[in-house]
Design a protein that fits this description.
Chain lengths: ~475, ~230
Amino acid sequence: MLRTLLLVARQEARLLLADRTLWIISALFVAIVGYGLFNGVKQAALKETALASVLQAQMRGEQTRRALLGRILHEGALPDPFANPADPSVMGGGYGGRYAYMPISPLAPLAFGQSDIRPDYYKVTNRSKINFLYDTEIENPWNLLSGHFDLSFVIVYLFPLLIFALSYNFLSAEREHGTLKMLLSQGIALPHLVAGKIAVRAAVLLAWAVIVPLVAVTILRPEARSAEYLGPLASWCAFVVAYAAIWFALAFTVNALGRSSATNALILIGAWIVCVLILPVVLNVVVSVASPVPSRTELATRTRLVTGEALTRYATLLSTDYQYVDNPELSRPQNGRIAIAGRMRGSYLMERDVDEQLEGLLDAFNRQLAGQQQLISRYGAISPAIVAYEGLTAVAGTGVRRHLQFQRQIDEFHRRWCTFFDPKIQEGIAISEADLDSMPAFVSNEEDRSVMRTSVVTGLLQLLVPAIALALFGGWRLRRYSVV
Amino acid sequence: MLEAKNLTKRFGATAALDSINLRVDPGEMYCLLGANGAGKTTLINVFLNFLVPDGGEARINGLDVTRHGIETKRLVAYIPEQVMLYGVLTGLENLSYFAELATGRKSPDDELVALLSDVGLDRTASSRRVSTYSKGMRQKVGIAIAMAKKARALLLDEPTSGLDPKAASEFSDLLRRAREDGVAILTTTHDLFHAKQTGTHIGIMKRGSLVANFSSETLSHTDLEALYLQHMQA
């Protein structure tokens, strides 16, 4: 059997090469895989550069502030009221704020995922988190509509079409050309013929879809070669193979139905439209109805209202004459105490109140978002495109779950940051050199590996079970295949 | 070698084969005559196990084709009205592939070139793409495949239909040689002259039934034509 399979596969390769189909499909596929990878690598490099710059700027800023605080405390230097490292209201704000960041995964070039709409770092201050965590989307709306041309887009959307281009008529064409009877009259079993034909097509397409990105990523991102990323890399490959298996199984089953090549093409394109375009949209609509999030407009309106009320509440403090500009001497710390400008205290209190009053709404927002994600995880199996996209982005470290976890960590960090500065601002306690060492610092925590493993196994099963079911159905139909 | 016993095949209410009984021994060539739709091609397809009979049995070398589909196909070679090959490959490459599929071993190119030469395709022709071949040349490749396979039986479905007289004559010569080598041949044809010239036995099919079955030596050309027309008009 293996000998026949290899012979058929070799012959198929020869035929595909001879009529140029394989050259054209391969060239096209390599080009789009290459372009998708190029975009991914570029995007990841940009993000890394930006993150490195931000962290470097933060480090330089902290060194500068530490030196300045030393001069103010020990050498009697006159502080600048807007850049006074001894003032907790200034240090807790934009001047001393610290970045919370999500490390860029070495596998990020494999999928943009959520990284094009959710930032990888935020500057956390004592201002309301509504100002940085839920700010306006500045992404090009056309990008949001069409998505980026990255490798996950190539795999999820275009890969099935190339599988169809090579496979829609692998059996029907033999029957239409009359070669099927010639082949089968030689004493070869139809399943062996089909297996050989699929094997060569799968080998060629998967070689381009898996090996090219693997080689590119491990060369361009040496850290991806470490043992830590072997698992995610293997998972990424498994998702591509399992996703391809579904479409190959579908092409096989459609061919086994014994229809004409034209009908096969129509059925396959129809299936692609339903599975890749329509079902994700339907699921999105269903999820939005089943677990609706408060609208952004409602959030913005509520924010304005709460901010307006807080402005009124702290109007007296906020309108305090800003004497510190003319008389910076007042900003100098004395005996561990410092005079906090009324305007600064008022701003802080206002932001704190906004956070407290929006807490419920933001919690509801986050709960509903998490609920939506749960629904998509549960019912995403209706479309292999959803399962594959979720899986590919998750193992590339750009998935929704990692970003949501990052957001929860930022929330927690923001709380710690405010808790650190709140008593100092309220009671006028100056920042000391020791405080610089004990200020909250963000530490990124990755999700538990077992959670990732479970989600990978679940995703793969969601792809492989329907692929096997389709293949079994196709095999059953093949036994009834009419050669004449 | 080739044997049909009460072979019946129905398509709905229509009997494409109605209790067909025939036998073709080694060295014999059985020519099946009949109008279009008489069931000749159906009979070939049943022998190739492309159609499953509703009754009776078809046997090749004593093996039931339904139960031993793969084994029986290894014993026969099939040449249809149009031998369909891969147009993007040369005659030699086509022969090499089909021969390897049939025999399970790769034959040396020299051996295959000699086979093609035997059937009338020289080295230049055999290295050309099949898409440039005439129908007669493709039929010759079909014969070469059968020879490479060392088939002990040939199933031919109107193999000379559409061939020019020269090509048809060459093809008939090849069949005669095969028959003389002990190959059992079952062929369908509309060509009474060809049947009389090359066949050892002749059968006439009508609406799925074998209405006449005789040795070709027992009838002259004129008698055969008269008998055929008599059955067709009845």
